[in-house]
Specification:
Layout: E1 2-4, E2 7-9, H1 17-27, E3 38-45, H2 65-79, E4 88-97, E5 110-117, H3 126-131
Length: 145
């Protein structure tokens, strides 16, 4: 955190955050702004480093999953797809994966995001909720990472 005129100013620790937010924002499809409680899935496909051992099938080093999610949530808010990232009430899946070790992985690095407004009374598993169009507007897009 830096200072400007005696006030704290937040500064991104990584130079990659701003381009990532811009890429997600640019890839966002047009649609209504979701403004209720949201169930969300975010699956980040990362490039597998050449230094990874054959036995390693899950990325467990940098970047931090929580930082990826926050930057993506902020970009979705900036794009106007949801009113605020505070609307996210539940994640049904938040993961970073490598292709081909995960069924939800993209073929190239990027992210897939699905979000639906949760109804007051819903009885289905969130994974089903996110895959059935009948339960409201769904948002899907990919962005390069």
């Amino acid at each position: 955190m830096g200072t400007r005129g005696g006030h704290g100013v937040m500064v991104e620790a990584s130079a990659k955050v701003k381009p990532w937010r811009e890429a997600v924002k640019a890839a966002a499809p047009p649609g209504p702004t979701l403004d209720g409680p949201l169930a969300v899935a975010m699956i980040f496909t990362l490039k597998r480093p050449q230094s990874a051992r054959r036995s390693e099938t899950v990325p467990y080093k940098t970047p931090d999953l929580s930082k990826l999610a926050r930057a993506t949530e902020d970009a979705i808010t900036d794009a106007g797809l949801w009113a605020d990232d505070a609307r996210v009430a539940q994640y049904c899946r938040l993961a970073k994966v490598w292709h081909p070790f995960d069924d939800d992985a993209l073929y190239t690095p990027g992210v897939v995001v699905a979000a639906v407004e949760m109804e007051e009374q819903w009885h289905k598993e969130l994974s089903e909720l996110l895959t059935e169009a009948v339960f409201g507007h769904r948002l899907y897009w990919e962005g390069n990472r």
